[in-house]
Amino acid sequence: MDGQMNRLPQSAEILSRRPEWLEGTWITLADGQAWSFPPPTAIPGYQEIAHDAAREAVDNILPLLNVDAIRRQVGAIATGDPSGVLRGLGQMFALYQIAFRLGSILLRHNYNATDADCDLLMPFNYQLGDLPDPQSRIHKTTPEILAMSNAIAASIGVDIGPELARIVGSN
Fold it and tell me: Looking at the 3D structure of the chain, how many domains does it have?
């Protein structure tokens, strides 16, 4: 999307802009409005922040990714070697966590957005604990939410790769 979008003059996006707002990648978020994600290179120390966020996401997910935990969370795994399932789930949750955390950093750079605002605008802050709850938002993921998370991942420089794209795209 480009900066020539038609927007209502009183939109939340415009009203929430910070003085240091930078035009970047326009992504339509859950409120139906396009929001600008500044280039990561515009944020001092972004590489270190991104590295820490990725490490934290992986560190939080790895202890949960064992056969017993997956069986408890998902309910049942087909008999046999579950390593492919574990790897796919781990990659998927790590992607969502990293895209959400780094997307929040970029969004907050441009806008006066709280944690709750980021959670509402980017409704893919999924946790493994969401899996057994049929009412959790992970079970209500739409193609639009997947497209949004993939667009944010691309804007922060995360390449989900073809293997994960098939996993995410099959939901």
Answer: 1
Segments forming the whole domain that contains residue 78:
12-169
Q: Does residue 122 sit within a domain?
A: yes
| CA 106 to each of CA 26, 28, 102: distance values in angstroms, whole numbers, following the listed order | 12, 14, 6
Contacts of residue 16, defined as CB under 8 A and 6 or more positions apart, other chains included, come to: 111, 112, 113, 117
Write out the H or E segment, with its range, that includes residue 96.
helix 83-110
Amino acid residing at 158: V
125-136 exposure pattern, b = at least 16 Cβ within 10 A, e = fewer: bbebebbeeeee
103 assigned to some structural domain: yes
Number of H helices, E strands in the chain: 7, 2
Q: Is the dihedral angle over the CA atoms 140, 148, 48, 114 positive or is it negative?
A: negative
- In tens, the pLDDT along 41-69 reads 998 998 888 888 877 877 776 665 554 55
